[in-house]
Amino acid sequence: MPGFQLKNIPLLSRSAFDRAEELRKDERALKDGWPEAKVLRMNRRGQVRTEGGAIVFEPALELAPEPDPAAVFLGVDAGVHLWAVRDNTIEGTLLDLRAVGTALDLDDVALGVLTTALALLNWHDKANFSATDGTPTHPASAGWTRVSEAGHEEFPRIDPAVICLIHDGGDRVLLARQQAWPSGMFSLLAGFVEAGESLERCVEREIREEVGVDVRDITYLGSQPWPLPRSLMLGFAAVADPAQPLTFTDGEIAEGDWFTRDEVRAALALGGWGSAGAEGARLMLPGSISIARTIIESWADPD
Q1: Closest to 165 in 3D by CA, of 238, 234, 226
Q2: Which of 6, 79, 94, 189 has the most crowded Cβ, counting Cβ within 10 A?
């Protein structure tokens, strides 16, 4: 079959709020906006409090009388400044990013806010010392940088990773199950980009390492942030020969198999991992939160 494109924008790539980069170093503007600002509290598990299917924001003045150094500025929505802060004491109905599309149905603004907050707070948790000079760092630019005692400015880390749908150019797709996943739970192959490596070479290397297959006709499809803890998923498609034997040499993959388009469509109809309809099925596919789902859906029904 000819190449395909993504039919929809991946769920976490639909951010629709203003990140307002120009305000991050404007201390006066941030202070002026604080009395009307809202704060999202998130614990170390990436969970936030929800009510009625919506994430809960609290008035910023309940946190502090002016911008708190521990809070990170996310952006602006409808003229209101949005911030996030780490808080391990939150109680109530707690949900995390993985619940989006199942237990929680958020609009594009809320998705962007939640994804950004998780990415920034995760970074701050592990950036207390400078990678350049080893001295302690402190937040700056409303949480978008950290500055060491020696004056080095450091920015949030993003780890690029490729994720690839391998098909035979026709009606079959190669899916794999990681060692830690339950029986029947399959997805696309993925891996982190190494230093000095292009995205295309990473696709070739990862697929050869994980399942022993050579690929060709590598095509870029789209991307999605995945702040669990700090990845950016870069989606690709590639063609391989189903006659080439599968070998699992790096220990990450427990099994892989070629599935027909009809089998994939049937699995998609059951819902994502954890759905009652998918439990116990021979083939279970990722939920809507993952770019893998978007890529698989686009291949299964390209028209």
Answers
A1: 238
A2: 189
